[in-house]
Write a structure and sequence with these properties.
Distance between the termini: 38 Å
Number of helices: 5
Radius of gyration: 20 Å
Order of helices and strands: HHEEEEEEHHH
Strand content: 35-45%
Length: 246
């Protein structure tokens, strides 16, 4: 349930390699060229310069604020005996990430970014039924979490295609791996009393890592698809030679 804060951070990393002319990008984005022998470090430095913009957002460039970041529909999934829906997600802490490492590759065309979010607060509404932590559960209501040290590794792969004799890039896959060091979760079931709600939350928190281990494949899959769709909308209008200058 780390949601959109991660996706915007990755998109900004991706944008930093997108243009041959700084005029075509927002003035607060420093362009890094492929010919730079310190390309990865250049991108890391440029991302640090952009982070303050994430707090306020820049509507004129279609960059929303991530404090908080809102996403209406995030997960609607049925797998492994668990049906889960998560929507109306609000997260805080997405602007405070640190870039640990960035790797760029030409064949296949891809980049990998490793980020750490020291702390993230999440509010959402949820609906789930099935089994989790080997226990049957049928619950809906509010989800609140305070997570610490979220580590994220994101790998996007693209391919070239031709349109009107011009080459463009399409992103064809996006793999995300997440881990959470620690945190506290509160699940509030709208159909039960406070005592039962507290018992459910206590059980989840006593088995915090097992809880997220069971949910993580669903979170990674949905977050990856969300990022892939939005990233393709960003790169679609721009020819390859403009996006990836030597």
């Amino acid at each position: 349930m780390e949601t959109m804060d991660l996706h915007l951070s990755f998109l900004l990393v991706f944008l930093l390699t997108q243009s041959a002319s700084p005029v075509e990008l927002p003035p607060f984005i420093h362009v890094c060229h492929q010919s730079d022998p310190e390309l990865e470090q250049c991108i890391i430095n440029a991302v640090e310069e952009v982070k303050p913009i994430l707090v306020t957002g820049a509507p004129e460039y279609n960059i929303p604020s991530v404090e908080p970041m809102i996403i209406e529909d995030f997960i609607e999934e049925e797998s492994s005996g668990l049906t889960i829906q998560v929507k109306d997600v609000s997260t805080c802490g997405g602007s405070q990430f640190t870039v640990e490492k960035i790797s760029l590759h030409r064949d296949p065309m891809s980049f990998t970014a490793q980020l750490i979010f020291p702390q993230m607060k999440i509010n959402a509404t949820y609906n789930m039924h099935g089994k989790i932590l080997v226990l049957p559960i049928k619950s809906s209501g509010e989800f609140r979490a305070n997570l610490t040290n979220i580590k994220s590794t994101n790998t996007m792969i693209g391919e070239l295609y031709e349109k009107d004799s011009t080459k463009y890039v399409k992103l064809i896959s996006n793999d995300i791996k997440l881990s959470v060091e620690s945190g506290h979760v509160h699940l509030e079931n709208a159909h039960t009393d406070t005592i039962i709600n507290d018992m459910i939350s206590e059980t989840v928190n006593k088995n915090f890592h097992d809880f997220f281990h069971e949910l993580m494949p669903v979170i990674e899959k949905n977050l990856g698809e969300l990022m892939l769709n939005i990233s393709n909308k960003i790169v679609e209008p721009y020819p390859y030679d403009l996006m990836f200058p030597e």
